[in-house]
Design a protein that fits this description.
Immunoglobulin-like; 4 domains; 6-stranded mixed β-sheet
């Protein structure tokens, strides 16, 4: 009886599954059979992807005589096991990287294969500007700094441009100009950032160059003012210098909070403002200047004239001449004085004393009333005198009467007040009446002296 039997098989492929069957016959002629399978161990293929950070997690594909895939470990190592003899292609792959070489061919021939290595290279990313250069404003003589920030695969190169013309030596992320001049005003600065994958150009940054500021200079000084109590006073100043100019008014050295312009008008003045000194401080970024002090003179408001209700000193004695009386005096001097005084009272007491509380229309009305009253009384006086009969004097001789009237004229002229047109017109009228009376009396006297005509 055969209890075991061995045999050696050669030429088997590595990494291959084989099936086998055993048939047997014993001495008695009995037949038996059985079967099973086995795998050949095969060979391995391994390598490393450098650098480690790039190889970690990279996928490696096997193609050709065998098909398989593997993933590189944290050290960038990968391995294929159980390979049969033959040729295959190994290809690594990872997003964002390229590999040198891109793939390799390896042959398994009865032994393990090692050292199938690769070098990973990051895929270049074109530059992208994250912080644009900002516009700058400087004063002539100062420098202007510009800077930029960008991302992309290193190394990045920079080239600054002035009005699209490259600036020699300006090849870093920041650039500072030389001392500026007025000709640099409105110049545009930009920068080109580049690498192996491409380039990016920034927006243009504008350079503004201002002239050197000029300190203020006052060309027109504020003038002193004279006003009446209750009125306002205005002060103004004119100045040159680099804008903007600021103004600050002061009263007796104390700043006035609301007076910050080139002109200033006070509030309604009072007597305590008399003698106040007003100055102005003009300033800008280059300096300041203080104007001359302007004095404010505040005069008291004038008092309106008034006539007291008393007998004027020019009234003749022995006859009433009260301007407030409604009784007309009997003699001609008193009558004219009454007319003038009454008109003055109407104007003075009713108008001027109330000017402070009346509108201009009411003041004109008061004046009109006074003038109307004056001429109305004058008209009534003339009308009355015109139709008054002269007194009868009897049959005395004309010469004494003329002398009497002449004496009366001299007396009247001594007491006649100089009150203007009223007295002048009254005197003219009286002279006419006297002349007519003298002519009439002379004619009558001649008729009496002449003998009667004989019939």
């Amino acid at each position: 009886m055969v209890t075991s039997h061995q045999m050696t098989l050669s030429g088997l492929a590595a990494g291959t599954t084989y099936y086998y069957q055993v048939n047997s016959t014993d001495s008695k002629g009995n037949h038996g059979h059985g079967g099973n399978k086995f795998n050949t161990g095969g060979f391995s293929l391994s390598g490393t992807i450098n650098p480690t950070a790039a190889g970690n997690g990279a996928a490696v594909a096997l193609s050709g005589g065998a098909s398989a895939s593997a993933t590189a470990d944290s050290s960038g190592n990968y391995t294929f096991a159980g390979l049969a003899n033959g040729s295959c292609m190994v290809t690594p792959k990872r997003t964002g990287y390229t590999f040198t070489p891109g793939n390799q061919s390896a042959t398994v021939s009865g032994a393990n294969v090692t050292g199938v290595n690769f070098t990973a290279n990051a895929t270049p990313v074109a530059p992208a500007i994250t912080t644009q250069p900002a516009s700058q404003t400087v004063t002539a003589g100062q420098t202007a700094p510009f800077s930029v920030a960008a991302t992309g695969t290193a190394p990045l190169s920079y080239q600054w441009q002035k009005n699209s013309v490259p600036v020699t030596g300006a090849t870093s992320p920041s650039y500072t100009t030389a001392a500026t001049t007025s000709s640099d005003n409105a110049v545009q600065f930009a920068v080109v950032v580049s690498n192996t994958a491409g380039s990016a150009t920034s927006i243009g940054a504008i350079l503004t160059v201002n002239a050197v500021p000029v300190a203020p200079c006052i060309t027109t000084q504020p003038a002193s003012q004279t006003v009446t109590t209750g009125q306002t006073a205005s002060f103004s100043v004119a100045a040159t210098g680099t804008a903007p100019l600021t103004y600050q008014r002061q009263k007796n050295g104390v700043a006035i909070s609301v007076a910050t312009s080139s002109s200033y008008t006070t509030a309604a003045t009072i007597s305590s403002d008399n003698g106040a000194l007003f100055t102005v401080l003009v300033s800008n970024t280059a300096g300041s200047v203080t104007g001359n002090a302007a004095a404010l003179m505040v005069n008291a408001a004038p008092l309106a004239p008034s006539i007291q209700n008393q007998k004027p000193d020019w009234c003749p004695g022995g006859d009433a001449c009260d301007p407030t009386s409604n009784t007309l005096p009997t003699n001609w001097q008193g009558r004219c004085a009454w007319v003038a005084a009454t008109s003055a009272v109407l104007w003075t007491n009713s108008g001027i004393n109330e000017l402070g509380t009346k509108t201009w229309l009411e003041r004109i009305q008061h004046l009109a009333y006074a003038i109307l009253a004056h001429f109305l009384l004058l008209f009534l006086q003339r009308f009355r005198n015109r139709f008054r009969r002269p007194k009868k004097t009897g049959r005395k001789s004309a010469k004494p009467r003329v002398k009497q009237r002449a004496n009366k004229k001299r007396v009247d002229s001594q007491h006649r007040p100089n009150i203007g047109k009223c007295i002048s017109e009254e005197g003219n009228w009286k002279r006419k009446i006297r002349k007519q009376e003298l002519e009439t009396r002379s004619q009558k006297a001649e008729k009496r002296k002449s003998p009667p005509a004989k019939g």
